[in-house]
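User: hey, got a sec? need Purine nucleoside phosphorylase folded
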Amino acid sequence: MNILVSACLLGVECRYNGRGVLIPQAEELLSRHHLIPVCPEILGGLATPRIPAERVGTGVITRDGGDVTAAYEKGAGEVLKLAQLYGCQAAILKERSPSCGSGQVYDGTFTGTLTEGDGVCAACLKEHGIRVYGESQVGRLLEDIER
Ligand code: SF4
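Assistant: Yep! Here you go:
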């Protein structure tokens, strides 16, 4: 199966701080499925490293007050295009990110406080019927798609 994956979870250094995080299940996933790495923030035109941003209402604001909502929405649209082109029905996206977070995101106060909600890209994919899993839910994803 073709599965979208946040590129930073495969070790690509595209996070706001210029780092990536290689998840331990990457090799197992690659041996069983086709992974399509995407970074919506880069596809939206943002640079790495970049000023951290959090969701505020329906938008996204940087720590210094810049409104980057348009870039986030563009990136989500580009990821959706790839998801549809590759026929992806599931995605593994980085938890808590203002783009990729699913179910919980930081609350816009830049204090490390979480609130219920989705990142812009995760919300877009869900709206189009693509199941979104965080990196702590890889086991559940495999159960769901291989049963
Ligand atoms: Fe990772 Fe998503 Fe942030 Fe890109 S936008 S660095 S893929 S969490």
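Quick note: The chain has five helices and eight strands. Let me know if you need anything else on Purine nucleoside phosphorylase.
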